[in-house]
Amino acid sequence: MDLGRVWFRYQKTMLITMMMFKLGLLCTAAADKCLSSPCRNGATCLDNLDDYVCLCPKGPVWFMGKNCEELLDACITAPCSNCTSIPGTDHFSCHCPAGFTGLNCTEDVDECQSNPCDGVRSLCVNRANGYSCHCPLGLGGQACLENVTTCAEGLCQHGGICIDVPDNGILVSVCCWLPGGQVWEQHR
Known about the structure:
Strand order of the largest sheet: 13-14-15
Low-confidence stretches: none
CATH class of the domain at 110-148: Mainly Beta
Structural class: mainly beta
Distance between the termini: 62 Å
Radius of gyration: 35 Å
Mean pLDDT: 79
């Protein structure tokens, strides 16, 4: 977490400002706002022109807020939306929604890693929070294991037999054949 770096820069800026003020490089002295001891929980008060700044101490318990009066909530700066933290620490954890993983829940789970498309020559396509199977001609279903037909019961008349016929890689045409090999009717 970058909280340490941000904290260091903040302290460094405040110390430089304080030094410049004490050396008379900044505006004339105003009333010292730190005299009323506004900072809590062991924080250091720095008089800053017309205001003051509290430098909250680090660990084992961390505080935040203008006067260091609140326990630090690490989820405020966490890069995930489903965050939980231990108040007063810089520790947080992200609870990933379905289909995502990783420290910050930014990595998509590749559902195709488990080979869910079992059919011969089937292709698994990973999607956000799921997958889809591209099945070879004549197979379908969630895992490309079901026989797919465009033939409907009773489609062929006069004792004809229904046969699936590929049309541009998709089963869309159905021909009914009479016994003896003659084409009786064709359905699209």
